[in-house]
Amino acid sequence: MAVTSITFAFDENADIETNLGRFETHLSTLDDIAGAALAVHFAALRSENVDQPGVWNALAEALEPKEASIDDSAAPPANPSPASPLPHATSAAVPIASGWLLEGVSIEGFRGVNNQGNPLELRFFADRINSISAQNGVGKSSIYDAIRYAISGRLPWLEDLPAGERGADYYVNRFNKSGRAIIKLRLVEESSGQKCEITVTLDAVGSRTTSAPAPWNADDILRSLDREFVLLDGPTFQDFITAKPLDRGRTFAGLLGLSEYSRFRQALAGLSNTRAFNNHFETTLHAQKKAHELKSGQDASEAFHRDYVILTGEEWKSMASEVALDNCHKALSQIAIIASHCDGKEFAGIDIDACIEAVKAAEGGPKRERLSACIRERKELAQVNLEAPHIDRAEALVERAQIREDAAGKTAGQVMLQLFQAGAKALELPEWSASDLCPLCDTKVPHNLQAHVSAKLANFTTLDEATRSLAVEWSAAGWTDLVGLEAKLETTVANRLIAKLGPKAQRGMISVDEAKGLVEWLKQLRQRAGECDQLLQEEQTGLEKELPQSAVEVTKKIEAGRRLQESLSKWTSARDALEVEKTWEQKTKRLKTFLDRAHSDFSAAETAISKARLTAVEPVFQKNYADLAFFGVTPAVSKKTSGEDLHIHLAEFHGLTDLSPQAILSESFRNAFAISLYLAAASLYGGMPKFLILDDITSSLDAGHQYFLVELLRTKFARPGNPAGLQVILLSHDTMLEKLFNRHVSTGSWWHQRLEGAPQVAVLPQAGAVNKVKDHTLSMLLAGQVESAKEGVRQYLEYRLSDLISKLRIPVPIDLAFNENKQLAGDFLNAIEAAVKLHKAANTLVLEPAQEAGLNSNMATIVGNYLSHWGTGQALAFSAPALQGVMAAIDAFCDCFTFVPASGTAPKYYKSLSQRL
Asked: Which intervals hold domain Rad50/SbcC-type AAA (predicted)?
């Protein structure tokens, strides 16, 4: 079917299945057969695993002419089917989901989360911003990695480690004795509230399994959650800014929900790539075959015409092949000696050798036999001494070789080709406005550099075309057909130049000198053939004089009949082979035209939908940036009409226009640029995942801009501030942000959890974590495991002191508020001691004398028996009983700041050091 000019476009509001259905319909207007064959591979084209040769072969097979099938409609089937087929059992229908929220996560044995037999359980709320904080090394990033692995099945940063580091060995926690990791995602469907818990298990040998309760399909749900914006960390934003425009464009396609479109487009680009297509289908080889068979047919036809005159005695004139063969048959059958050998047979079926034997039997004699041999040998020589290539055509080989050599002289190999291709891409960048500035040496040149690079690339194209032209000329001129003449006249194999250089010439790779040598060699062969024919002719003439004229004429005609049969066979073979090559050529041209148009139309439609979504994203993106960064700067993104490249720039920068953000913005504002764009795209084109996990994205921002980011999330982006927004989960180790999170918890719009623990033992959330840490530490001390328990003592002490300072509103130095040092216990105790002394001096201390005394004694136990050793690194001085005493002293120290409001009630903390309630 001929390619039409119908314009194709996607429906911007439709999902990819619907749009691919529209594309399939469009393909049928381009080529109904090829379109249907390509549609079979849509699923593979959407993925990252495309068997390109397999798709080409399937399309080519679909375009093969089909033989007419026999109509068996009237015949009854051998095994007739029943009139009413039995109903098939159907599985329960999978509920339709409009979006997924994350209700909780359970992790055991993955990365830095050991928790053997006691999984780390984290709870999230759909109608609050969720935050998790932890000090470095506790396991916060392992939570992020666990969710990423559960959704995507891999951690790229881990798999990209050098092979010798065996990154795959670090998925399962190295301290977990079970040798497996279990991750559970507790999901809730947004609109219906239906719940689904997906379990992902990874064993020690790397085998991953997924499961979900019926009727849900775990893999389908996880695939729908695998979007670029769902899990974001600091490096993601940095990589987005520094990436090449093409890579950035493909990443952004994922943000817009168009990642599958992008992969589909890349797959079509690969299928339509001219060089790859030609290499796969060997188009040069087929062009040579076509030229060869065309010439073989012409040579056989001309030989047939010449021998027709000898056999029939009539001049050749245009006639149907059936008429010509009938005339040849009549001419032979009129010779009485061989008439019986012609009766009842077609011309091609006459046995020429039997005819020669009949003549020999009738007239006999070695001279007549030798005459027949001379005639035959001359004709055999004439058959291999083909007229083509003529000397002028032979010189064309030299000309083509010279053209190729000249083209090769203007190039410098594959490395330079890649250099010029990279240069062309660099010059197309919008930030590269100087057309005379070299991107390699930053030197100005006196000419248009883009035109210069384009000309250099054109030289490589010219070289490819010249190589192909030389190869086709070799076949079309008939050089290969002279291999027989060369073998007949040159007994030494090493001297057969045509056979020697033939394979190289068929690839179009011979040099000018080699081509000239072939032309000279051809002249020598022609001369040798003439001399040989002259000798045979002289011998034939002498024999003809000695033999009766009738014997001579009969022999000539019978031998002419032999050659006619041979020419007919060659012509038929060449005609059939030529027809095959023509059919193949039509098929591949049809396929290439179809693939070019399919790629072009899909690319245009994908670019259009991408630009439409980009247009919708840009104002939201700019507003986000204004809220997050500072005024006077307007970021912008742009995409070319053709291609996938996404370019970023500053439309305005304090009165200046069109500047590069990479060059002019600091790291924090470059990250703010990417964060604003990601949040804008996620808010508009989120798709199935209705949650967003942000890991350590504030590390490059100062305190003020960290606050701006939190406020942007809280008030405009995330639920509940934006009821239509996404569920946001923040992971951070920033102590200042943790204080901000804790302050928001009381508003009811925030849910905060703190992690405690260690990869060797367990990671526990704040809710109840302090008691779990205490119980676990005491259990290890009772078992004599001092080395493992001492870290639990520190965590328990720091948490209780931190909680005490918060409850009693004890002021701390500003540097302590921002201190991320793990050993904070001493500073906490100093702050508490200073506050107690201050209120004591002011006579406002609410503590009772017994409580004051208890403070001093318990502080001495904590400091003297623990902190002094911990601070000096003398960990080996700890004993299990001593640390048990420290744990008791921590509780007693904190109890000194409590009172019993009424008899029989639980103790409560003082409101402050100066107020009871």
From this structure: 105-202
From 712, 738, 761, the end of a domain falls on: 761
Q: Return the pLDDT at 362.
A: 59
What distance in Å separates the CA atoms of residue 560 and residue 545, rounded to the nearest whole number?
20
* 801 plus 745 within the same structural domain: no
Residues 903, 824 within the same domain: yes
Q: Higher-confidence residue: 414 or 471? A: 471
pLDDT tens, residue by residue, 161-176: 888 888 888 899 988 8
Is the residue at 259 inside a domain?
A: no
Q: How far apart, in whole angstroms, are the C-alpha atoms of residue 689 and residue 97?
A: 10
CA 813 to chain centroid, in Å, comes to 53
Burial 767-800 (b: 16+ CB within 10 A, else e): eebbebbbebbbebbeeeebeebbbbbbbbbbbb
Name the helix (H) or strand (E) containing 122: strand 120-123
Give me the CATH number covering residue 724: 3.40.50.300
CA–CA distances in Å: residue 129 to residues 496, 721, 748: 84, 9, 10
Q: For the chain, how many structural domains are there in total? A: 2
Residue 878 belongs to what domain range?
A: 768-909
- Checking if the pLDDT of 88 tops 50, the result is no
- 96 belongs to a structural domain: no
Residue 287 lies in a domain: no
Size of the chain in residues: 917
712: helix, strand or coil: helix
Residue 506 near residue 476, CB atoms below 8 Å? no
Give 624-679 pLDDT, tens digit per residue. Answer: 888 887 678 898 888 776 667 888 888 888 888 888 888 888 888 888 888 888 88
Same domain, 807 and 780: yes
Residues 898 and 782 placed together within one structural domain of the fold: yes
Share of the chain above pLDDT 90, in %: 19
Position 144 in a domain: yes
DSSP class of residue 839? H
* CA–CA separation, 486 and 499 (whole Å): 8
My answer on whether 136 and 182 are in the same domain is: yes
Residue 775 shares a structural domain with residue 757: no
pLDDT of residue 208: 94
Q: Is the per-residue pLDDT at 284 higher than 90?
A: no
pLDDT at 890: 87
Compute the C-alpha angle 325/331/334, nearest 5°: 135
- Amino acid letter, 197: E
Q: What is the mean pLDDT of the chain?
A: 82
Please, what is the angle between helix 512-546 and helix 366-384, to 10°?
A: 160
Domain boundary among 710, 745, 761: 761
Angstrom distance (rounded) from CA 776 to CA 779? 5
Name residue, tokens 């219906």. Answer: 192
Q: Are residues 783 and 701 in the same domain?
A: no
